Amino acid sequence: MKRIYLVLIVLIGISISCTKNFEDFNTDKKHPAEVTGNTLFTNAQKALADQVASTNVNLNVWKLFAQYWTETTYTDESNYDIVNRTIADNTFRVYYRDVLVDLAKAKTYIAAEVNIDGNEPQEIIRQNRLSIIDMLMVYCYQDLVNAFGNIPYSEALNIDNLSPAYDDAFIIYKDLLTRLNDDIAGLDNSEGSFDSQDLYYQGDIDMWIKFGNTLKVRLGIMLADVDGGLSKDAVESGYAGAFTFGENCQLNYPGGTNSNPLYVDMIASGRHDFVAANTIVDIMNNLEDPRRQAYFTQADTSTDPSVEKLAYYGGNYGYQSPFSQYSHVADAIQEEDYPMVILDFTELAFYLAEAAERGYNVGGTAESYYNDAVKSSFIHWGLPIDSVNAYLANPDVAYSTAPGTWKEKIGLQSWLAFYIRGLEGYTSWRRLDYPVMNIPEAPRSEDGSVPKRFTYPINEQTLNATNYYLAADAVGGDLMTTKLFWDKY
Amino acid sequence: MRKFTLFFVFLLFVGMQAALAQTAVKGTVTDAKDGTPLPGVSIVVKGTLTGTVTDINGNYTLTVPAGYNDLIFSFVGMLTKEAKIDGRAIIDVTLEDDIVGLDEVVVTALGISRERKSLGYATQEVSGDEINQVKTNNFVSTLSGKVAGVQVKTSGNIGGSTNFLIRGSSSITGNNQALIVVDGVPINNDNVNTTDQLRGRSGFDYGNAGSDINPNDIESLNVLKGAAATALYGSRAANGAIIITTKKGTQTYTKKKVYGVNISSNVTTGFVDKSTFPKYQENYGGGYGTYYYGDPPYGGFEYLYDINGDGELDYSVPTYEDASYGQKFDPSFLVYQWDSFDPDNPNYQKATPWKMAENGPITFFETPWPYTNSVDVTGGGESSAFRLSYTNQDQSGIMPNSNLKKNNVLFNGSYDVLKNLKITASANYINTMGKGRNSTGYSDNIMSSFRQWMETNVDYKQQKDIYNSTHRNVTWNPNSPEDLAPAYWDNPYFQRYENYETDQRDRIIGFLQADWKINAYFSLMGRYAIDTYSELQEERKAVGSAAGEFGVGTTAGRNDVTSGYSRFTRSFMESNLDLMLKFHKDLSENLNLSALLGTNIRRSRVDQLFASTNNGLEVPYLYTLGNSKDPMLPPEELLNEIGVNGVYAQVSLGYKDYLYLDATIRRDQSSTLPEDNNAYYYPSVSGSFIFSNLLPEVKWMNFGKLRLGFAQVGNDAPWGSLIDTYVQNPSFSGNTLYSVANTKNNPDLKPERTNSLEGGFEMYFLKRRLGFDLALYKTNTVDQIIPASVSFATGYSAKFVNAGEVENKGIELMLLGKPIVNENFKWDITLNWARNVNQVVSLQEGVENVQLAALQGGVTINARVGEPYGTIQGTDYVYLDGQKVVGSNGYYKISPTSDIILGDINPDWNAGLNNRFTYKDWALSFLIDWQQGGSIFSLDMYYGMATGLYAETDFINDLGNPVRNSNEDGGGIILEGVKEDGTPNDYRTRADNFRVFGYDKNPNAAFIYDATYIKLREVILTYSLPDKILKTSFINAVSFSLTGYNLWFLYKDLPHADPEASQSSGNVQGWQSGVMPATRNIGLTVTLQF
């Protein structure tokens, strides 16, 4: 019987031995378990710019919602169908998963970096980086609120809470303003920040301070119809330190692997999905707006092959519009290295024009800011300065003579100037209710009107159902027609 | 130490003594009735696990351990007979028909042979012949309908994957496929298709690695269905196991040497089953309506270009549209079509009649003539036996330029080094080469063009001719006469001949085994086995192709490119070291005991690299990574190593001939679990009670058995799910970019467990002319380790959690009948029927749903609490008192949310009915395979109904006019339903554009179909040359078989497609896009035996 014991001992011995490599087996040798916060920040900057630029119909359909462009054959998104391609889901995915969580993790890492001997400059640089990161988070959350209304905020980005509650959109806005004030106060230009790892400003603290103030004006002006006092405070305290002429925040794409998504979506893809929408082209044609040449190509509208009759010609928004018949997006916009604007002076100047109309003390008149804004837009689009003056002299453009209320004037011109910045254009229309949008052929919105918001992601219906249904109730129904809290008129 | 060595030598010596005392016997088993040899008779040395089976000529040889003198001969349907050896070397036996026992021996877990009657769990055996007669690329697919409780779903793609479930899905996101074991060695059956492919976006179906097993080498296959059967294998067999025994040579135990040669040749051809291919409408051509520039009544045409150069504008087809909702056909009207744009086309600048194409997409398919040739040589002598086989398979597909070649060499041999020490070795080399597999899913898939996006006026023979004459991408779908680049679709021939993939897998499976009979009670088995392969997949996209997602991506996804080359390499290695000590003793006359103790050391390693060109190819036709236009993106790398150390024990008790009890316990220690908590134990107990042996006076009952089993099986975590890592994105202007991974790992995972309870009842009566085997089971998988989808607001898409319980309950019934048995004519019927009901009992706290996939069309496949696994969710109609509501715009109202359960992927039940008739030298069998229930969302119908391809979009309406006429012209349709106020709908909705029938204005529910099918799966007619003809020749046997496979749908609900077809195996089922049509296969096999 002894030999049996021996065999037993051998068997058990073999099975117990050779577990010493076990930990090594389960280690991922191809991906790091630790990275620096700076690399996460850089990644988030690119991901954010990509989302803002994109015209991929799965990711960003706001250039359509703003009626700058319309689709050629597959007009689902132009008709406000965001279910077929789960666009709301993808919006949550990009902002929370691909941008915000990287920023949040970058903060954690940077806060935990070891400071040798309490070195003061190092501490300032750390604080600068944390403030910059937080400002980008504020930017992202504002986009999300402007798309949906109430969103997960205070309980977001916490993987230990799989059912994050939705916060009230107005409360989020107030918190964003508080954060922004702290962030701006936390920036110290005696030291640097990220240097070249900051793709927007190469670590320039002065520019980040201006970015913060501009963003504050933007948050503030959105609240004008909700909480006049808060709005006034934010705008008045922000404008002086904000962007001046020619200043903005943008990502300069180097091309190649890091090409502007517009190039990827429209040139590299070989697809012909978009043409100019009649909504914008008709208005620009009426105004003989010189920016047409920077925005669009001309189409040959002649029926005689021997004669060319070029014109700016937009497809009926939301109706099928054969690519060959209509104006296209200008070639320059489809270049690999076309820069994408995140925030700019043009935008600020329109907000300040509006602020002046609302009686805020912003150091200028509505007309002066209106003119600045239009000028800024022309310069941004590469048009000669004399063409601006001529344009501003057009009685339909000149602030004193243009038709309609200040909302109509500023609404129209800011919408024209926000071209290709879909969310800003669409938001401007929602706030100022101008210009008049076209109704597409078969709108998916509940009452057939232009949507006032995105419905929540399907994922939230299935994965965060309790909070989803609470949020849907709180905003007044998860419908495209439900107006956001700042959209009073 | 010296003492130890001495002891070991002593032990060896004693062992040899025991071995020398072995005896060998051989003989022939014949049928008592007519004296014909009986193949497949089980012979067991009574009181041991040693046994063998007779060969085709009824011959057997067997080594009998010392101290044993009784042999048991058993065969289904015949009386079991015992024979005393009493020193004889040759023992010939005759068996009599129609008697009591069910004493056959089956191979169970870890290669242990057991008497079937003693098992306390369900197994079902299928012979090698049944698997080998019909030639498919994966032997698993031929099991459909043949085993109760098994669901087989073949994707339909050439060399494609086969989904194989035993007793339903139990794991929420893990592997639900059964384990495949060949001669005791687990065989890797991975499906390495990309996530995009599995979720139906794009990509090729590279199949399952288990398809490497050569059906011609299979002697028998035993399906172990429940956890009790497979507890000894551990977690990998929690979903059941297929235990395959390969054919072997025969040891003679005498001076005589025997040899045999088998040659078999098969050729099979396939024809598209037209009921699984679109039936197109024949009255309207390319376009989306009548809004183009042409003047009425030709608004469906462009009027923008001067194509023939005469200075006047011409009518031309909007070729950039991939839909058939355009201009009504009028053969008398001449129009410029795609073939008039390209100078190399015979119709250049020529207008042609506007009509339905003569050669539609169906003409695109080719008739393949795949063949399979096998030769094997077996031999045996006094102390050795071997078998060497070679099979060559050359399978072309119905898609042009597709084929799959396999070469398979298997050698196995055994040699008695000593009388009590047998060495067995086996080596199997398999080489698989694929070329031109069909692309799958939504984009870039020719089938999705045929089913969703095309123009009915396009003549595919013309597409073929222009490709053959130019070798350029002259597509039917150019952007415009001035821009001939493809809008969405390539010339399909260009795609098949230029954008083909190739793949190759070289694999070696082998083992070395020693069996040592230590003494009368103990024996020891040691085995070292490896399964290793290297695989290369190369994909190409020629310069000038339509843009599509391709190659490596970033965290943001994969970009569309118009050319590229990608290369995926994978090497896989698994080794298993097994040691098993077996013990057997009769404790008393009535009570015997078997026990075993074993250990299994498993190591596996996967090393993968996926690299591709970026943003296209610089030089056309040069397919190399260096030819990348932009610098390459970082390749995707994976290196994953897993180690599991297991120890197990089993005790079996047998009391008299009617009571059996089994108990097992296993401990596994796995490297994928947290180090301080990586070992787990799990037990099983099962028993069987053969009550018929207590009731010999009940004459009508030949056999009756009750069985009951309980088992728990543990499971470890997927590799690398404990520690978080970061994902790198391409650097930006010299800056490194890292991103938080999409799935949050969890360092606190604990093993998941499957608890299963099963009972069974087996009876045979009326001289075994009638029998049944009934099984009932309930399996609960708890503490599941799942990368659960989570709200994106958490910053992640998924998180590994230990949560959730899935319950599977089911019933399996097997009925056997022999309605007619006489000398010349026999009729056998087998009916398999199984119903599995599963339910997601719980998920983690606060979570009601785990999303398995979000698919094109806005539907999701989910595991939702309280519902069956795999619910299909999406938008539904809005109902009022059970009636569909039509909105004020004349279209159906659609539910505001997309979380409505529209169906689930699980069939209600599966059945297979097999009939076999034997008349003299002729045999005819046919198998009817029936799946009842289950749901499918058809993306093909979702889009194809909108693009106006299908016949259902063109009919005469209630006013007697073509429905596609404008409403002013008496067209349109009044949708069935009620208005919002509840009154019957009377809106006449326009049907002259793409909205009314398709995805745009209908909920997902409109495209959900019942997956039920009844198929005539197999028909086999075999003729064997009578012995008297062969008697004088050197040939032993000759047979001819005519086989038919997937011949006919007796019933299906899903229009225009095969409900079985899918993009791939795996958990994402119940969704179809661009699936291949089914083929009716007819083959001829000739088999010669020397």
Features:
heterodimer; A: about 500 residues; mainly alpha; Serine Threonine Protein Phosphatase 5, Tetratricopeptide repeat; two-stranded antiparallel ribbon; 19 helices; about 50% helix; about 5% strand; B: about 1100 residues; mainly beta; 22-stranded antiparallel barrel
Share of residues in helices of chain A: 40-55%
Give me the CATH architecture of chain A, please.
Alpha Horseshoe
Measured between the Cα atoms of the first and last residue of chain A, the distance is 94 Å
Structural class of chain A, by secondary structure, is mainly alpha
Percent strand of chain B equals: over 45%
Q: Strand fraction band of chain A?
A: under 5%
What's the quaternary structure here?
heterodimer
Please estimate the helix content of chain B.
Answer: under 10%
Major sheet of chain B, described briefly?
A: 22 strands, antiparallel, barrel
Total separate domains of chain A: 1
Largest interface: A-B, 106 and 124 residues
Low-confidence stretches of chain B: 1-21
Q: Could you please describe the fold and organization of this structure?
A:
The complex is a heterodimer of chains A (489) and B (1090). In chain A, 49% of the residues lie in helices and 5% in strands. With 489 residues, chain A is mainly alpha-helical. In chain A, the strands form 4 sheets. In chain A, strands 1-5 form a two-stranded antiparallel sheet. By secondary structure, chain B is mainly β. Chain B is 6% helix and 47% strand. Chain B contains 9 helices and 63 strands. The longest helix of chain B is centred in the N-terminal third of the chain and has 19 residues, at 2-20. Mean pLDDT of chain B is 89; it is low at 1-21.
